[in-house]
Amino acid sequence: MLSCVFEDSSFDERALPVILAVHSGTPSEDELEGAALIEYDPAPATLESTARWMSIRDDLTAEGFTPTEILRVFLRAVSLAYNMPGPTTEMLAWMFAEVSGTEVPREVCEHLIALGRAPVPPGARRWHLDQAGAIAAARLACDDDLDPGFDRLLVEAIVPLPVVRAALAALPMERREALVLSTMDRMNFAADMLGWLLDTRDLVDTPAVAAARTRLINQAPGSDGMQALIAEESRGTPRPLHPRPTPAARKALQYLRDKRAEERRAADLGPLAERAWERAIFVEAPELRSMAAWEAAGERRREQITDAVVTALGPEFSLIGLRSFGGSPVAVLSRQGVRFCLVPGGGVDVGLSPEEEAEIRHAADQREEWEEDYTLLDELDLMRPLTHVEVGPMVVAQAPSPPLPPHEVSDELERSPLRLPSEAEWEYLARGGLVHRLTYRGPGVPDSDEWFEATEALGVDSANMFGLYGFGFQPEPCTDVFRPSHDGLPADGIPRCGAGPRVVKGGAAYCYPWQGCGEWHLLLSAMRTPQTAWEHALAPRFVIAIRTA
Predict the structure, then answer these.
(1) What pLDDT was estimated at residue 403?
(2) Among 45, 428, 460, 526, which is disulfide-ready with 348 (CB 3.0 to 4.6 Å)?
């Protein structure tokens, strides 16, 4: 008796390509709305899965499968024959309702009764089969063809309330009573038991069931939830069944709509960043083209240039003052409570230099956890070739913003007068005038909790020569589209554009506390990852370019 619909592989060769093709796709809005009409109490993931199985049903129909054959394929999927979650009980009930006759539901019930508690078929899960059996038994009940020996299948699995109510309504009262009470006996909590009795009170209100409600009320009156159920029981009014889509299904559907809108908005980050690239102010100040020219300008001229920059930025910006961070004075500005620094242009070698590689290899030789270092060393092409780039002057946020969902970064970029730096600009700003050093804090492998915590705690006191700090800690997006190397990196600091995720620099704090898998690599000035690795949060460090001619 173990050979039945769950092991029937006769349709696999035709059905499996359809199942795999649909299951790897994203359901459409119409498919999700259709799924919401089937599912009674779905989570968003359940709604997406049901939408896929609905699409599979339509594609199988187009391939010439009959409803009975499709049901057999779906029942085989329930036993995980295709190594993926099968259709839900609501979806199965919908499929059973489409099939004429009771041959398949009877076959399922007979198989499960014969199977009893024997080992299930290889790969199958018992509760999946029990759910299929409960739906098959409910279909037989609705067709007035449920053998008493199949009754227990209705109570051996969690079945959607509308399905079990339809089955109960088709049975004689004495069988209804026995099924309702036996279902209650399988529950662990008094509130669950009383809730079940109230769910079916309009169908089964015999003296035995009423006595069971009274016993529960007397034995467990304590919790707020139980008190609400007791008050409901005393009113004696039947519970309404929500029409489809139910409030739960509408909530799940709205969640998916919002999530997809956020994903679309997050994908807008690249095009928005590219369009914002031309945002700049114009200041007649050739002294800003290099640090050497800025240093040679003299105090009075630096003050004049700073005033001109503040004027060009507009009333949103105000001057805090000029301050030294270990080098020439840096103009510090403020916009809406966020501090910015005026950084002259200059040159930078973008990528991991031989000196930095040597530092990492030396550290790898000194400690036992060498695997994490060699994971990085296997990815050197991602940060090569080392490319010299010249970038222009700009006004830069001293620190990255607090982490934001990617769609909010897109919103901020659209409504703000600022833009994201190019990858070359970011490395210029992060290195802060240091040449071929692992991090903005200088040489040495930053692989300890002490380094991380001490540097983070310093805040602005850890700033580099440009007055900037926090590099490597948060995932900071750049304007550039992510490419697997620096081949073709423009020498003038402009971003590489195109469709796809953006380059993200940093992110070590997001992975902290580190688990010894090389998360500290994200602190390195040369390290780069794609935007897709940071789907939950990005922390932009906004800039405004300065054109000096």
Answers:
(1) 96
(2) 428
User: How high is the pLDDT of residue 4?
Assistant: 79
d(Cα 29, Cα 429) in Å, to the nearest integer? 44
Domain check: are 224 and 257 in the same one? no
**56 and 162 within one domain:** yes
What count of other Cβ atoms lies within 10 Å of the Cβ of residue 498?
Answer: 11
**Cβ count within 10 A of residue 160:** 21
pLDDT for 123 equals 55
User: 226 lies in which domain range?
Assistant: 173-236
Binned average pLDDT, 10 residues per bin, the chain of 549 residues? 74 95 91 96 96 96 97 93 91 94 94 75 71 94 93 86 93 95 89 94 95 92 89 92 94 97 96 97 97 96 98 98 95 97 98 95 75 78 97 98 96 95 98 94 85 91 97 97 97 97 96 83 96 95 95
Cα(536)–Cα(406) distance, integer angstroms: 7
Distance CA 368, CA 371 (A): 8
Residues 108/76, Cβ–Cβ less than 8 Å: no
Assign 3-class secondary structure to 64-131. Answer: CCCHHHHHHHHHHHHCCCCCCCCCCHHHHHHHHHHCCCCHHHHHHHHHHHHHCCCCCCCCCCHHHHHH
Helices (H), 143-268: 161-169, 173-185, 190-199, 207-219, 224-235, 247-267
Query: Which residue reads 């897709």 in tokens?
Result: 532
Which residue, chain included where needed, has tokens 């998360």?
519
- What's the half-sphere exposure (Cβ side, CA atoms, 13 Å) at 221? 7
What number of helices (H) and strands (E) belong to the chain?
21, 11
- Residue 302: closest CA among 260, 336, 344, 274: 344
The pair of three-digit structure tokens given for residue 156, joined into one six-digit string: 């051996």
The predicted pLDDT at position 115 comes to 82
CB of 411 closer than 8 Å to CB of 265: yes
Same domain, 186 and 229: yes
Which tokens is 173 given?
């009262």
Tell me: do 377 and 517 sit in the same domain: yes
- Contact criterion met (CB below 8 Å) for 111 and 1: yes
Residue 288 identity: L
* Burial of residue 421, with CB atoms counted within 10 A of its CB: 0-12 exposed, 13-18 middle, 19 or more buried: buried
Q: Indicate the number of domains in the chain.
A: 3
pLDDT confidence of residue 124: 58
Half-sphere exposure of 218 (CA within 13 A, CB side): 6
Cα end-to-end span (Å), the chain: 87
Same domain, yes or no, for 215 and 76? no
In this structure, the answer to whether residues 409 and 324 fall within a common structural domain is: yes
CA distance 527 to 60: 48
In SS3 terms, 323-352 reads as EECCCCEEEEEEECCEEEEEECCEEEEECC
Alpha carbon separation from 321 to 282, 338, 465, 500 (Å, rounded): 21, 14, 16, 40
List the CATH number of the domain containing 292.
Answer: 3.90.1580
The verdict on 462 and 338 lying in the same domain is: yes
